[in-house]
């Protein structure tokens, strides 16, 4: 028995060392990506865990095809979080317990909230980048001597084209009409600034009011707005690169209970039977799950507060 315990602990130490090494490699990759992004270069950076990512990509592709087939059959949109429900049902069969199915349902709810929050964040970031590009493009055209309204209408039309920010076609239609037909452009800019991530248009509206008839002054103001938006984006990316290590550490700590269960299986303790089929095990599972969820929520709030502080 002592030899088996030594072998198990050696395996656990090797797994921990591997996770630590991969974590350090990921940090090096993130720093290299940030450096190349600042330099404007596109170089091939070595990737750690390429086989694992390829396997994960193939698995996700299979699940996505299944989700697409279900959407066509049911005639409704199914989010990625819905995959947690059938996964829990499948795991409930060998476990002879409804707990995995319930966990899959709860995971679907939590994952759905996370995915929707991520979609909103990406949409807002897309708007910020688009507004920075619009202000820079309009400023460049104004310095070439073109009329402000014509330049603004062309830039807005490009944003409304396919491939632009989400919701740009409807949100920017009043602004396009004001620029083309002599409407109140500052008011239209402030209304469009109500979109999440399009707050930079309020600064463009102020510049438009101050320099209504002077193209040069308007170009300088729009350049400052674009520079401020780009600086905010760079600061946000730098903060995320700094928080990447903390996120990876929190994820690794969250996976430690899983390593404990695997260790128990290796020792022949059969922890899954105890957790899923006994009253004491179910109580421990409930308390542990609640503490795990509280820790993850707390960590997420700390990270979110740090990101919003920028």
From TrEMBL:
<feature type="transmembrane region" description="Helical">
    <location>
        <begin position="6"/>
        <end position="23"/>
    </location>
</feature>
<feature type="transmembrane region" description="Helical">
    <location>
        <begin position="250"/>
        <end position="269"/>
    </location>
</feature>
<keyword id="KW-0472">Membrane</keyword>
<dbReference type="Pfam" id="PF00482">
    <property type="entry name" value="T2SSF"/>
</dbReference>
<feature type="domain" description="Type II secretion system protein GspF">
    <location>
        <begin position="139"/>
        <end position="262"/>
    </location>
</feature>
<feature type="coiled-coil region">
    <location>
        <begin position="222"/>
        <end position="249"/>
    </location>
</feature>
<keyword id="KW-1003">Cell membrane</keyword>
<keyword id="KW-1133">Transmembrane helix</keyword>
<keyword id="KW-0812">Transmembrane</keyword>
<protein>
    <submittedName>
        <fullName>Type II secretion system F family protein</fullName>
    </submittedName>
</protein>
<dbReference type="InterPro" id="IPR018076">
    <property type="entry name" value="T2SS_GspF_dom"/>
</dbReference>
<keyword id="KW-0175">Coiled coil</keyword>
<feature type="transmembrane region" description="Helical">
    <location>
        <begin position="275"/>
        <end position="298"/>
    </location>
</feature>
């Amino acid at each position: 028995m002592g030899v088996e315990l030594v072998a198990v602990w050696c395996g656990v130490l090797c797994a921990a060392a591997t996770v630590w090494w991969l974590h350090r490699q990921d940090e090096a990759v993130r720093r290299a990506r940030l450096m190349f992004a600042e330099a404007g270069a596109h170089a091939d950076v070595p990737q750690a865990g390429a086989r694992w990512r390829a396997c994960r990509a193939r698995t996700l592709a299979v699940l996505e095809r299944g989700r697409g087939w279900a959407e066509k059959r049911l005639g409704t949109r199914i989010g990625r979080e819905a995959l947690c429900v059938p996964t829990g049902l499948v795991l409930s069969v060998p476990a002879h317990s409804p707990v995995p199915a319930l966990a899959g349902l709860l995971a679907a709810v939590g994952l759905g909230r996370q995915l929707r929050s991520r979609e909103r964040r990406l949409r807002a970031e897309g708007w910020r980048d688009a507004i920075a590009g619009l202000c820079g493009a309009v400023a460049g055209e104004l310095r070439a001597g073109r009329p402000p309204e014509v330049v603004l209408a062309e830039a807005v039309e490009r944003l409304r084209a396919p491939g632009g920010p989400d919701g740009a076609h409807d949100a920017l239609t009043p602004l396009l009409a004001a620029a083309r037909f002599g409407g109140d452009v500052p008011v239209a800019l402030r209304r469009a600034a109500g979109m999440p991530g399009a707050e930079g248009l309020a600064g463009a509206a102020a510049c438009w009011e101050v320099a209504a008839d002077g193209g040069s002054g308007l170009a300088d103001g729009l350049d400052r707005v674009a520079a401020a938006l780009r600086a905010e984006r760079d600061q946000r990316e730098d903060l995320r690169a700094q928080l990447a290590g903390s996120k990876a550490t929190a994820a690794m700590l969250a996976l430690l209970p899983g390593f404990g269960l695997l260790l128990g299986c290796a020792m022949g303790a059969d922890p899954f039977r105890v957790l899923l089929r006994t009253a004491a095990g179910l109580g421990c599972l409930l308390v542990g799950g609640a503490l795990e969820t509280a820790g993850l929520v707390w960590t997420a709030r700390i990270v979110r507060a740090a990101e919003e502080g920028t």
